[in-house]
Amino acid sequence: MSTHTDRLHDRKFVRTFFTTPTAVEGEDDSAKMLQSAVQLRGMQAPDVWVPDNEDATAPSMRPEGVDNMIDVISEHGADFPGEIHPRVVWHRESPGTRYQGLQQIMKLANPENGAIEHLDGFVIPEVGDIDDWKKADEFLTIVENEYDLEEGSLAMSVIVESGESELAMGDLREEMGKPSNNLERLFMLVDGEVDYTKSMRAITPTGELPPWPELRHNTSRGASAAGLIAVDGPYDDIRDVEGYRERMTDNQAKGMLGIWSLTPGQVVEANKSPLPPKNGSWQLEVNDRTIELDEEDGRHVYSGNEVELEETGDDQYTLRVGGDELELDGEELSQELLDMTSYIPSLDDIVDSMEEFEAAKEAGKGAIAMERSGTLVIDGVEVEVSNDRMWDEATYQAAQTPITLFQDVYENRPDQHEDLEELYGEDLVERAVVVG
């Protein structure tokens, strides 16, 4: 018997979940957005493309949307660099809607229509409790048997957009692997904050969506416990690039490395966001604000006015932060600034550290000290800061996550090799692919 840890899909990470309307009303070619999306390549192409025959497509256009998907995917699907997972209609409280979803899946999966060989699975929205997830799984099992497809070959992803589906994530470990279901086919757990807000009857003064950090944490936890992939919902202010980045940074600290993308521009941002930066950088924490220092000739320069530094004598300094003023010698100043700073390692830094630890482990050492140093410049005064961090096996394993993601991207997205080599350099890419 299978267990919940068995994975029926190849991707370990999904950075981008890009939805596209399947039929646009009032256009000469209602499939124009599908035609455009299927041509995306490189950093503009998502890890998972979701032709969306539910919320993104008007109900009256959905039958035409299925035909459009069949036409576009059968013709161009073989060349699309990511996975393709159409979103069909479903609803936990509507048998009629679930039946429509089955009919859409049946038509898309029919080998005579030519699309199924390019489809990796289906996205099921509006799921409810675990029994409802099993209904969707059973429908996919029926489709697989109808068309002589291998059971479990069609991945199933669900959109968590109700309290019922949020609670159902806690049942997955117990339910997956039972002989009575094929829930091992599950792939992604995707948050849908808009409908979740409606389901929860939440109200905010401005009418904007609550940030729902609890839902995102619970989805990431549910995915981790069941060997699945967690994806955040859409960030619909498509012009707010900085807000999108902040959302992804917050998600990544929860282990949610994927996010919904609504435009090719968001796809580019989301594809790059979880990758380690090209250059390491120092940050200064001032009055609950994080300020990235500018790098100039290998030095890290603070150009704000909330921190002031003055050399007052031989190895004597005055440091002013907000309303506080400190008289410090050189050693005390270095320690004070070290406490105020943090360092974001580059891909090169991570690979260097991992290689150094691997060499030490090969030589029989269980832990080694890694030094990190830099020159900070405040008001023209240079200050050397450095610290030692102990690396042991646990530190090494934690550092592996961004490298494992990088390797997963490199393996599954050959269309992005050129972008990665342009970003990092060919030599570093070659080292990153084999380290660990």
Descriptive overview:
This protein has helices spanning 32-37, 62-76, 95-109, 130-146, 163-168, 172-175, 193-200, 213-226, 241-252, 264-272, 330-340, 347-362, 393-412, 417-424, 426-434, and strands spanning 16-21, 48-52, 83-84, 121-124, 155-160, 186-191, 229-232, 258-261, 281-286, 289-292, 294-296, 299-302, 307-313, 316-321, 324-329, 341-344, 368-378, 381-391. It folds into three domains: 16-273, Phosphoenolpyruvate-binding domains (TIM Barrel, Alpha-Beta Barrel), CATH 3.20.20; 281-396, no CATH class; 401-433, Methane Monooxygenase Hydroxylase, Chain G, domain 1. The two termini are 31 Å apart. The model is unreliable at 1-5 (pLDDT under 50). The strands form four sheets. Strands 3-2-1-8-7-6-5-4 form an eight-stranded parallel β-sheet. The protein has a four-stranded mixed β-sheet with strand order 11-12-17-18. It has 436 residues and is α/β, with parallel strands linked by helices.
